[in-house]
Amino acid sequence: MAPRRDGRPGGRKSAAGRTSGSGRPGAKPGRSGPSRSGAGRSGSGRSGSGRGGARSGGDRSGPRPAKRSGPRGLGGEQIEGRQAVRELLLAQRRRVTEIVLADDLEGDPAVADIVELAAAERVAVSYLARRRLESMCRSEAPQGVMAIAAPLSEVTLSEVLEQRRSAPLFVVAVDGVTDPGNLGAILRSCEGAGVDAVVIPRHRAVHVTPTVAKAAAGAIEYLPIAMVGGLPAALERLREAGVWIVGFDDGADRTVFEIGDLANEAICVVLGAEGAGLSRLVRERCDVVVQIPMLGRLSSLNVSAAAALATYEVVRHRRAGG
């Protein structure tokens, strides 16, 4: 599937039924990065928060609960879990209001680095009975650690396209993933593979909840996330900017191992929702649709596992020099 000089695979039709040989504006340079794929199955994270009194040198006034994001917000104000909170402090990209630890962790070497980082950044650390702290948390296993911070800042699609890079743009778009554990794992894989940005729809998809933040293990502090009103329109805009749109779907005729030279160009990998896969309008905007071959008895991978495989397959092609 080597591209012709006009930047399209020679005369082949994409899975969406368009001729890939039509001309298109040249791609802007971008950083090498991965994309995610495939539809999978998932569970769902808990939601809801409680309240409790915190202790910091005898103060039991309690931490201020994180404000819930409105429907237009990306989220990320409440961070839970040791790794996620540690990376929040290390990144220093947004204001941290308070760190709350379970009182049985006071003096514990397992959280000593978090306490030291908080002190260095002049962030208040308070202690709370573990049961009361866990009643405030919204992820399954907060590990006795919670932080309250300013919400994450969204990036726009224009900012993603206009940023100067030393390598072709690599974007991952998520088509309606609703399980927070899956989205968090996807973000972690994308950040590890050097993806430039992740695009998620504003509606009918999970945003950055505490469960997402914990599963992402700090990736949300470094990985740009663009929230768009409609994913089909966003993909069309990427296409017009010279970005190849590669969808992952179980029913595709080609496999991920056939993307070839497309991996070395500006590319957006599109992953489908759990169970449903790519929606019709999203699939129609893909230049190519591929699948991950299943050689055993199962029919598909979990979407987060598919994301890891897809993004690193792109990285492998780029490292090999195409």
Main sheet strand line-up: 7-6-5-10-8-11-9
Q: What is the helix tally?
A: 9
**N- to C-terminal distance:** 12 Å
Order of helices and strands: EHEHEHEHEHEHEHEEEHEH
Per CATH, the class of the domain at 157-320 reads Alpha Beta
Number of strands: 11
CATH superfamily of the domain at 157-320: SPOUT methyltransferase, trefoil knot domain
Overall 3D geometry?
Answer: elongated
CATH architecture field of the domain at 157-320: 3-Layer(aba) Sandwich
Instruction: Please report which band the strand proportion falls in: under 5%, 5-15%, 15-25%, 25-35%, 35-45% or over 45%.
Output: 15-25%
Task: Please name the CATH topology of the domain at 157-320.
Answer: Alpha/beta knot
* Cα radius of gyration in angstroms: 21 Å
Low-confidence stretches: 1-61, 64-71
The percent of residues in helical segments reads 25-40%
Tell me the layout of helices and strands.
Layout: E1 78-80, H1 82-91, E2 96-102, H2 112-120, E3 124-128, H3 130-136, E4 145-149, H4 157-162, E5 170-174, H5 180-192, E6 197-201, H6 210-216, E7 225-228, H7 231-240, E8 244-248, E9 254-255, E10 267-271, H8 280-284, E11 288-291, H9 303-320
Parallel strand pairs: 2-3, 5-6, 5-10, 6-7, 8-10, 8-11, 9-11
Antiparallel strand pairs: 1-4, 2-4
Helix pairs in contact: 1-2, 1-6, 5-6, 5-9
